[in-house]
Amino acid sequence: MQVPTQQSRGGAVLAGLGGWLPPRVVDNDELSRRIDTSDEWIRTRTGIARRHVVDNGLSTVDMAVQAGRRALRSAGSYGEGIDAVVLATSTPDHLCPASAPQVAAELGLSGAAAFDVNAVCSGFVYALATAAGLIAAEIATRVLLVGADAFTTLLDPDDRTTVPIFGDGAGAVVLRQGSPDEPGAVGPFDLGSEGELTDLLYVPAGGARLKRSDDPSDHYLRMQGQAVFRHATARMASSSRAVLEKAGWHTSDVDRFVGHQANVRILTATAKNLGLPADSLVVNIGHTGNTSAASIPLAMLDGVVDGTLRAGDRVLVSAFGAGLTWGSTVLRWPGLECEPPA
Ligand code: COA
After folding, report:
1. In which order are the strands placed within the sheet that holds 325-332?
2. Residue 199: C-alpha distances to residues 202, 223, 313, 324 (Å)
3. 241: which of 73, 83, 135, 214 is 20 to 30 A away, CA to CA?
4. Across the strands, what pairs with 19?
5. What is the pLDDT of residues 285-329, one digit of tens each?
């Protein structure tokens, strides 16, 4: 086990990565039999061919536990002595309490600090910054960070504007205390929000503002797709530029771009806006759909498994989500042993 020296503290280093997708797969043809859409429309407008969805009582906590267990295994000895569990989610099992303590307990980590972070599809990057902050402040030395969402539970099953886009899943990383200069050290970060635009992507009822509504559609996700598309592309590009400047990187230094997997057209438009080559994109949306807070760690995992993400790669990470929220970071990819997402 590596013991950080006094000088080497302050960095939060990626030490393990895991992911899990629920077994039930819904492809575009199955959706086309239920709602007025087609495989061709979904593929060309979004890049999605199929997605995994929760059924048979599976929940966000269940998925988070599976992904967390794999990340702990991937981290080897760094998976021992976890002192904080951070869960990025906007679909917790209960409105109260947070789901992270239950995830911690089911992983045998009872006693660790545990809390949820909700920044919707930007949640993983926000939680990564939070976990890195816990380590930098020496509040924690090893953090399990899980991004997990059962976003399909928020959807009107008859709404063709949202159902094709989203899927469910969980991705997780272990962060350990280390040097800011070593491979795997995350940061700097750029985070932002624009709450004036909440209405572009939100669930009107169920929270403190409107507990129950007589209109059932108020309990489902409402999305202005074209406006969200425009903001996502602009914000991921501007946030990426801001974090590259903080890091002292030029665009040409970036080997891989791991962006939130919302729509392959958003990813290619963002890469084009930044001047990044299309082959720098890590893309797995075709088989996952938009898994919200799970999307970035799941894309990283697929990138490692299929060899597009290799030790030493300079990686730009950027996310965008409801809120509106956005966030970006950079890291040099470390050598990690990972299992494919089950
Ligand atoms: N199947 C077939 N046709 C559909 C459809 C579906 N599932 N959904 C919409 N359409 C139709 C529309 O009714 C419209 O028809 P019309 O031209 O006859 O009026 C046409 O397809 C184009 O609709 P439009 O909304 O302009 O499509 P689009 O190219 O903007 O793609 C999204 C729609 C939702 C895929 C796209 O706007 C998007 O990805 N937005 C961002 C969503 C997102 O990422 N949300 C999460 C952010 S974290």
Report:
1. 189-193, 325-332, 314-321, 256-259
2. 6, 8, 38, 9
3. 135
4. 171
5. 999 999 999 999 999 999 999 999 999 999 999 999 999 999 999
Give the orientation angle of helix 123-136 with respect to helix 295-306, to 10 degrees. 90
This prediction's pTM:
0.96
What sign has the CA pseudo-torsion 306, 19, 44, 265? negative
- Residue 44: strand, helix, or coil: helix
Closest CA to 143 of 184, 177, 169: 177
Give me the residue spans of the domains in the chain: 1-342
3-state secondary structure of 35: coil
Residue with the two structure tokens 């980590």:
109
By most ligand atoms within 8 Å of CB, the mutation choice from 29, 39, 45, 51 for ligand 1 is 45
Run of H or E residues at 298: helix 295-306
Indicate the angle between helix axes 39-46 and 264-274, nearest 10 degrees: 20
What CATH number does domain 1-342 carry, 3.40.30.10, 3.40.250.10, 3.30.70.260, 3.40.47.10?
3.40.47.10
d(CA 12, CA 128): 9
End-to-end C-alpha distance for the chain, whole angstroms: 28
pLDDT band at 342 (very low <50, low <70, confident <90, very high): confident
pLDDT value for 4: 44
Catalytic residue among 28, 52, 121, 231: 121
Instruction: List, in order, residues 6 or more apart from 192 with CB less than 8 Å away.
Output: 235, 239, 325, 326, 327
What does pLDDT average to over the chain? 96
pLDDT, position 15: 98
260 is catalytic: yes
Pocket of ligand 1 (CB under 6 A): 37, 41, 45-46, 121, 160-161, 164-165, 223, 225-226, 228-229, 232, 262-263, 290, 320-321
316 CA distance to ligand 1 middle (Å) = 28
The residues, any chain, with a CB within 8 Å of residue 150's CB and separated by 6 or more, are: 54, 58, 59, 60, 63, 91, 168
Q: Which H helix or E strand runs over 328?
A: strand 325-332
